[in-house]
Amino acid sequence: MLDTNKLCAELSMTLEAWQVVASFLTPLIVLVFGFLINRTLEKSKVAYLQEKEWQVRWAETFLIRAIKFEENISVVVTSLSQLQQNAQNRSKSGSSEDELLKTINQSIANIQYLDWDIQNFAQFADDGEGVIHRGKQLMDAIRNIFDKKQGDLESIRQMQFEYNKAVRTAHSQILKAKS
Fold first, then answer.
1. pLDDT in tens, 109-145
2. Residues 31-82 pLDDT 10s
């Protein structure tokens, strides 16, 4: 016959042993799970920070290129304006016109390079096509004035305003880009 008291005592001791083991293992299990969760969170944080760094760097580079593009447009416009004034006044010619043409040609080369670069950066903005389109409009307007040796320089200023608005929008979108 089974001794119920002995069985109860053994069961009680086994239960107490399991309670002691559980009391020691619980903090250890919490520590392991905490470590695993923390490691996962750190990996996610690092990935997020790397993505954000990429966005900031590309947005900054895009903005620098767009500003240089706009500056070169302004150089061409002011140089063309000076050429127009020289042609009207006929007081300056020769070397000053050659220098202005050299400045214009250098700025146009810069504009072409910057336009190419801006197109590469604009692809990361939802409205990047707006920047590209407005940049092409500016380049076409400059080319048209240069070819005809006359034109409305104020219309280029308006195009520059629209270009700058598109750049601001695209810059903001690059900063908020999702991979």
1. 999 999 999 999 998 899 899 999 999 999 999 988 8
2. 999 999 999 999 889 888 888 888 899 899 999 999 999 999 999 999 988 8
Q: What angle do CA 12, 18, 24 make, to 5 degrees?
A: 140
**pTM for this structure?**
0.73
Rounded-to-10 torsion of CA 39, 42, 44, 48: -170
Contacts (Cβ under 8 Å, ≥6 apart) of 14: none
Encoding tokens for residue 120? 């590469």
**Are the C-beta atoms of residues 104 and 97 closer than 8 Å to each other?**
no
| DSSP assignments along 24-82, one per residue | HHHHHHHHHHHHHHHHHHHHHHHHHHHHHHHHHHHHHHHHHHHHHHHHHHHHHHHHHHH
- Residue 145 is predicted with a pLDDT of 85
Alpha-carbon span 145 to 127, nearest angstrom:
28
Q: Tokens standing for 102?
A: 């050299």
Phi then psi for residue 70, to 5 deg, are -65, -40
* DSSP one-letter code for 163: H
* Cα 49 from Cα 22, distance rounded (Å): 40
Alpha helices in 90-152 (DSSP H): 95-122, 128-148
